[in-house]
Design brief:
Layout (H helix, E strand, L loop, with lengths): L2 H23 L7 E4 L4 E4 L3 H6 L8 E3 L1 H8 L6 E5 L5 E5 L5 H32 L7 H24 L12
Antiparallel strand pairs: 1-2, 1-3, 4-5
Helix pairs in contact: 4-5
Amino acid sequence: LNVNQNIIYCKICWRIQLHIWRLFRLGVLMKNYIYSARNNAFFKMSNRKLYECAGWDLSDAIEVEDVVFNEFTGEAPTGKERIAGKNGLPGWGDIPPPTPEEISHQNLYRAQEEYNKASIQITMLNELVEDDDWNGTSKEEVMGLLDKFTEYRKLLRAYIKNSSGGSDFPMLNK
């Protein structure tokens, strides 16, 4: 290298070093975490021994930069979930559709919520009847709503007792 080339080379090296120093200062290139593809989880590097003593198998764990940790512990893109990539690093994969069992549990949970809401409505309507206070409506309207919510609650109770959580979810007739 001649003198001019050497000066240019030194300036480039200095700029690269400055850029790397800035990235470290911003925490971009810091490595405070390890990632285990087997567990699909991140662990603070300084706590590795604690996790291993607690029974975690971290034999496959690799050091990752903080930017990787931040990306994959933040909010996932719509329709995606964190998965263990083939290269031992995290990646984004499609969320699988719910299984029939999961759908059943969701339906039963929703049925219980609807049952509780219907019970609250029935209690409110019964109080109006007991107090002879129609709250700006007519007795017939309140009694009609009471019948509607009572029938809906009976359908929900039968649905919940069936315990299948099938697709025959009862609906409130409005």
